[in-house]
Design goal:
This protein has 147 residues and is mostly beta strands. The strands form 3 sheets. A 4-stranded antiparallel beta sheet has the order 3-4-5-6, with helices on one face. A 3-stranded antiparallel beta sheet has the order 7-8-9, covered by helices on one side. The chain has a two-stranded antiparallel ribbon with strand order 1-2. 10% of the residues lie in helices and 30% in strands. The protein is built from 1 helix and 9 strands.
């Protein structure tokens, strides 16, 4: 990791120790959160927007109400991803903490009305795999949006 400033004591640390502890004050250093792989990714019928502190899903699927929701990373409970193939669309589903009691879909056809998900075309599998990895790494991080 590169040099960083301790947010607790303000000292500049040239080489961050492997244990992640500030050598001057003993506090745990916060590692930098990874940046989103893309600012926006087109999904089937909409898009997913990724920012430093939140994700926005805006999609309209046939026969279901439009989804347009912004979720701070600290409110994400879990994420599931199923890549598309020649037969079915894939999907990415983001589950908020307030809905953690609802099981995440693990294969095509398990999505439920009210799920925050987006369908994926096969040509976008790699982009959405990167989005999935990014979201999994950021579960529970970020700041409240002040809903």
């Amino acid at each position: 990791m590169n040099a960083m400033k301790c947010e607790y004591c303000g000292s500049m640390i040239k080489t961050v120790p492997d244990n992640g502890i500030c050598p001057n004050c003993g506090c745990t250093l916060k590692s930098e959160r990874p940046k989103p792989p893309f600012p926006m990714v087109e999904a089937r019928g909409g898009f997913i927007e990724l920012r430093d502190k939140w994700i926005r899903l805006c999609v309209k699927q046939p026969k279901v109400p439009r989804i347009d929701i912004t979720i701070p990373y600290d409110q994400i409970y879990d994420v599931s991803y199923v890549p598309a193939n020649w037969w079915h669309y894939g999907f990415i589903c983001v589950r908020e903490k307030r809905n953690q009691h609802i099981p995440l879909p693990e294969r095509f056809g398990q999505q439920r009305l009210g799920d925050t998900f987006a369908f994926i075309e096969e040509k976008n599998n790699d982009k959405f795999r990167q989005v999935y990895v990014f979201l999994k790494a950021n579960i529970g991080t970020g700041e409240e949006l002040g809903r």
